[in-house]
């Protein structure tokens, strides 16, 4: 049975490509999701991609994933630094969680150095730009399918 991954992006990540490209890169979220879909299919992983600017919607999507996904890749954007509700939702999910940030949050303002999600994540990828999402998928293929590529 094919394993399913939920790729979840939080607030302002819908603006990727036009938002502070010096920090977040020139690729749009659609470009990134397309690349993730291509790699997921090569790795034999199902992929559902969602983005929301709303904390409660992100919580709802994580709750839905309890029944429909084997793992979550999450870039919760600014909510990473503020949201106990997203942490609680992730703690209700049984599968692997990989946290991704395009920028290296540890090189930036002090308020970005702490992420509530990190205590739940099995792996954390920061500062690798959009490639971080692909690395996260490869890690999940390794964990879920035993893929070593
Ligand atoms: C981000 C880093 C966060 O601090 C910021 O609020 C974002 C994007 C990143 O991907 O680098 O929205 O999660």
What does this protein look like?
With 149 residues, the protein is of the alpha/beta class. 37% of the residues lie in helices and 19% in strands. It is built from five helices and five strands; from the N terminus they run βααβαβαββα. It has helices at residues 21-24, 29-42, 55-68, 84-91, 131-145, and strands at 3-9, 45-51, 71-75, 96-101, 123-126. It has a five-stranded parallel sheet, sandwiched between helices. β3 (71-75), α4 (84-91) and β4 (96-101) form a beta-alpha-beta unit. α2 packs parallel to α5 and α3 (55-68) runs parallel beside α4 (84-91). It is globular. The relative contact order is 0.20. Bound molecules: 1,3,4-trihydroxy-5-OXO-cyclohexanecarboxylic acid (DQA). 1,3,4-trihydroxy-5-OXO-cyclohexanecarboxylic acid (DQA) binds next to loops.
SSE diagram, text form:
Layout: E1 3-9, H1 21-24, H2 29-42, E2 45-51, H3 55-68, E3 71-75, H4 84-91, E4 96-101, E5 123-126, H5 131-145
Parallel strand pairs: 1-2, 1-3, 3-4, 4-5
Helix pairs in contact: 2-5, 3-4
The structure holds 1,3,4-trihydroxy-5-OXO-cyclohexanecarboxylic acid (DQA).
State the gist of this model.
This protein has 149 residues and is α/β, with parallel strands linked by helices. The chain contains five helices and five strands; from the N terminus they run βααβαβαββα. Strands 2-1-3-4-5 form a five-stranded parallel beta sheet, with helices on both faces.
């Amino acid at each position: 049975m094919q394993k399913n991954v939920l790729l979840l992006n939080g607030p302002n990540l819908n603006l990727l490509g036009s938002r502070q490209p010096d920090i977040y890169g020139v690729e749009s979220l659609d470009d990134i999701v397309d690349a993730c879909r291509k790699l997921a299919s090569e790795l034999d992983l199902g992929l559902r991609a969602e983005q929301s600017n709303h904390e409660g919607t992100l919580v709802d999507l994580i709750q839905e994933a309890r029944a429909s996904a084997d793992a979550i890749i999450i870039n919760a954007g600014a909510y990473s630094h503020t949201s106990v509700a997203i942490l609680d939702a992730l703690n209700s999910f049984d599968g692997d969680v990989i946290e991704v940030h395009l920028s290296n949050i540890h090189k930036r303002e002090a308020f970005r150095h702490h992420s509530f999600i990190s205590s739940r994540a099995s792996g954390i990828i920061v500062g690798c730009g959009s490639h971080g999402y692909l690395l996260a998928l490869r890690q999940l293929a390794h964990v879920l399918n035993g893929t070593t590529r």
